[in-house]
Amino acid sequence: MSIDHSTVIRNNYQDTNLSTADFYFDLPEELIAQTPLAQRDTSRLMVLNRAEQSISHAHFYDIINELTPKDMLVVNASKVIPARLLGLCLKNGAPMELLLLRAHENGWWETLVRPGKRAKRGDKFAFGDLLFATVEQVLDDGNRLVSFDYDTARFQNIYEVLCEVGNMPLPPYIREKLADKNRYQTVYAKEEGSAAAPTAGLHFTEDLLARLKEKGVGYGEVTLHVGLGTFRPVKVEKISEHIMHTEHFSISQEVADEINRRRANGGRIVAVGKCHDQRFWHLRQGYYRPHYGGFGCGHF
Q1: pLDDT class for 63, splitting at 50, 70, 90?
Q2: Rounded mean pLDDT of 274-281?
């Protein structure tokens, strides 16, 4: 999905003295789960009660007790593509790794390449015998624009090829091989385009969503394709100097109207995940409006 930059919304940020060091914390490696639970919604849930200033612990399926019929869940229905490609440079046989970030209208893809020094304009790579890539342009930030060649008689589009040769772009702290690709998708994922999962929604099951709807809790889907910002480290000391990237975001008239109706009736809008929660914060100007296109964040 390419971004129409004429529709990009850019945020107005407030300057801050916060530094990256203010966000450092210790996360023991042995506490990072390497494989998913057999049942998604049996994961743990920490409940912060702001009114009572208390913390309690539950299971994710208990979230039904925290929501009322006035409230509304808004989830990100973006679908993760097998965006990590492992292959060889055709010039010298050296191993190459590509991470697909975003498709452009001309069919080229913006990618992260490792090692970057081996990816000069005109270089060609092979990913098995099904997919071949050519570096078309080296961007100022070091990313590469690449074009792809594959058997169009066998595959209707690039996504079908990626299902054959691509790997799910797991975070670097997950070292175990993913046995089932669907476990890195939400149960409501629809539109392909994310380079990483909107992980906050991974714990919902179809049964849990059905029980929430039976209770009267509202439900709406938006699409935000998670991209480069998920992978690019913050290298500046002052966080307001960190330049963020542009992502594709869309919200329909129907969902926007339901959000506005529930807010007017005193309900809470629960954005599942920080990615589109940030977009809601910037889109809100009294009422939510439909939007389709790029969403640019000029600063952190």
Answers
A1: very high
A2: 57
DSSP string, the chain: ----GGG-EE--PPP---BGGGG-----GGGS-SS--SSGGGSEEEEEETTTTEEEEEEGGGGGGT--TT-EEEEE-EEE---EEEEEETTT--EEEEEEEEE-TTS-EEEEEESGGG--TT-EEEETTTEEEEEEEE-TTS-EEEEEE--TTT-SSHHHHHHHH-B----TT--SPPS-GGGGS-TT--EEEESS--GGGGG--HHHHHHHHHHT-EEEEEEE---GGGTS---SSBGGGPPP-EEEEEE-HHHHHHHHHHHHTT--EEESSHHHHHHHHHH-BSB---EEEEEE----
The region that residue 7 occupies, defined by phi over 0 for left and psi between -120 and 50 for alpha, beta otherwise, is alpha
Rounded Cα distance, 184 and 169, in Å: 9
Q: Which domains does the chain have, with CATH numbers?
A: 20-80+179-296 (3.40.1780.10), 84-165 (2.40.10.240)
Model confidence at 83: pLDDT above 70: yes
CA distance 218 to 204: 15
Instruction: List CB contacts of 120: < 8 A, sequence separation 6 or more.
Output: 135, 138
206-217: pLDDT as tens digits = 999 999 999 999
